[in-house]
């Protein structure tokens, strides 16, 4: 019995591939560090200390992983419908901009305004992603193209908003010498943190995990989830069974954008110093949209798997910031992070090729 039919052997193959890929990435990182005049010995320890073992660091890692998880969940929804949404970065930016605009204008009691921020963030991201949906189903524009192009439009629109006080720019008295920033959220308008063993864990972490579990159940055990998966596998069959590609496709893109917008609002209300210090600032998204997309790909678009993968990416983000303290050049840390990410992407590609080869050999044996 081969690895394609034996679950234990197949699991061992997955574990072995991830271990080998991770080891290869670390070896290449060490070689790169030595080649650029640094020392490799403190590298691994610094990554671990900076992301997990240092005082308050694993709380920071969870806080960084939460918005990545939210973005990844939205990516899974659109992918299950057979759609390729790669505009999460723009949807996140628009979502947080809408949250800032309406949040400061509506106001209200602290907890109420926090909820409003999250709701408007999700609505903003959903509306921006729906533009690509309308182009896809009424004009035949591929969503992979429109969502990507809309990222540039979103960046320019948010930059324009931060340049005008009637939109997003804070009054002069509330931004001091800083240019192009929004007002800072008041303390009672921020998501609370859970203090656990000296770590500040944002409530957004629990929200993201709860949504991941809920999404997994919806996709696996509801009629809506079944129809969405059917649409993604074969649109012709889905249409014959009464599943509207337009209705479900638009809904999937809107939900995908809503999750990215929600991630942006959560970063604003609970991200603290990691994300703009409770302000909308230029570069606020910090590539979280792109990273969340990568999280979904590495997790092979599985709702439960993205929880662990988002944690790994959050650890890479928080830990890599400390690598430069060892004397290693700053740009090298970006390359090291890229190698570690690549190590997570290689095993699924290898297993896909092996499964296809085994299927081909099995078909040849039957003939």
Q: Tell me the count of domains.
A: 1
Second CATH tier, the architecture = Orthogonal Bundle
Q: Spans of 5+ residues with little confidence (pLDDT < 50)? A: none
Q: Report how far the terminal alpha carbons are from each other.
A: 20 Å
Structural class category: mainly alpha
Shape, per Cα inertia axes = globular
For the largest beta-sheet, the strand count, sense and barrel status come to: 2 strands, antiparallel
- Arrangement of strands in the largest sheet: 1-2
Rg result: 22 Å
CATH class: Mainly Alpha
Strand content: under 5%
Mean pLDDT, all residues: 87
Task: Assign the CATH topology.
Answer: ABC transporter involved in vitamin B12 uptake, BtuC
SSE sequence, one letter per element: HHHHHHHEEHHHHHHH
List the total number of helices.
14
Number of strands: 2
Give the proportion of residues in helices.
over 70%
Task: Provide key terms for this protein.
mainly alpha; ABC transporter involved in vitamin B12 uptake, BtuC; 367 residues; 2 strands
Question: How do the helices and strands line up, and which of them pair or pack?
Answer:
Layout: H1 7-35, H2 41-53, H3 57-80, H4 88-106, H5 110-138, H6 143-162, H7 172-175, E1 193-196, E2 199-202, H8 203-221, H9 223-233, H10 235-240, H11 245-270, H12 288-298, H13 305-323, H14 330-366
Antiparallel strand pairs: 1-2
Word description of this protein:
The protein is mostly helical and 367 residues long. The protein has one domain (37-328): ABC transporter involved in vitamin B12 uptake, BtuC (Orthogonal Bundle). It contains 14 helices and 2 strands, in the order αααααααββααααααα. It has helices at residues 7-35, 41-53, 57-80, 88-106, 110-138, 143-162, 172-175, 203-221, 223-233, 235-240, 245-270, 288-298, 305-323, 330-366; strands at 193-196, 199-202. It has a two-stranded antiparallel ribbon. α5 runs antiparallel to α11. The two termini are 20 Å apart.
């Amino acid at each position: 019995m081969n690895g394609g039919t034996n679950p234990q052997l197949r699991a061992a193959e997955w574990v072995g591939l991830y271990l080998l890929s991770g080891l290869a990435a670390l070896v290449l990182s060490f070689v790169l560090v030595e080649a650029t005049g640094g020392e490799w010995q403190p590298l691994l320890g610094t990554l671990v200390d900076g992301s997990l073992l240092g005082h308050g660091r694993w709380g920071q890692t969870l806080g960084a992983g939460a918005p990545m998880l939210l973005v990844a969940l939205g990516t899974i929804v659109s992918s299950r419908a057979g759609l390729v949404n790669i505009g999460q970065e723009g949807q996140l930016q628009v979502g947080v901009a809408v949250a800032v605009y309406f949040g400061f204008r509506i106001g209200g009691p602290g907890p109420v305004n926090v909820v409003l921020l999250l709701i408007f963030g999700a609505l903003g991201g959903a509306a921006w992603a729906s533009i690509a949906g309308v182009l896809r189903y009424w004009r035949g524009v591929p969503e992979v193209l429109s969502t990507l192009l809309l990222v540039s439009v979103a960046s320019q629109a948010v930059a324009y908003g931060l340049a005008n006080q009637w939109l997003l720019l804070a009054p002069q008295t509330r931004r001091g010498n800083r240019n192009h920033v929004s007002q800072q959220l008041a303390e009672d308008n921020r998501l609370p943190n859970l203090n656990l063993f000296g770590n500040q864990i944002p409530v957004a972490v629990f929200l993201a995990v709860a949504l991941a579990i809920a999404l997994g159940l919806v996709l696996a055990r509801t009629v809506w989830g079944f129809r969405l998966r059917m649409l993604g596998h074969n649109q012709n069959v889905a249409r014959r069974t009464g599943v509207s590609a337009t209705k479900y496709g638009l809904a999937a893109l809107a939900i995908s954008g809503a999750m990215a917008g929600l991630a942006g609002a959560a970063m604003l209300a609970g991200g603290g110093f990691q994300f703009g210090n409770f302000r909308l600032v230029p570069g606020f998204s910090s590539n979280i949209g792109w990273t969340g997309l990568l999280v979904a790909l590495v997790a092979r678009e599985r709702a439960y798997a993205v929880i662990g993968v988002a944690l790994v990416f959050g650890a890479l983000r928080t830990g890599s910031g400390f690598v430069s303290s060892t004397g290693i050049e700053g740009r090298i840390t970006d390359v090291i992070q890229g190698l570690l990410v690549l190590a997570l992407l290689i095993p699924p590609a290898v297993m896909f090729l092996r499964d296809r080869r085994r299927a081909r050999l099995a078909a040849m044996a039957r003939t």
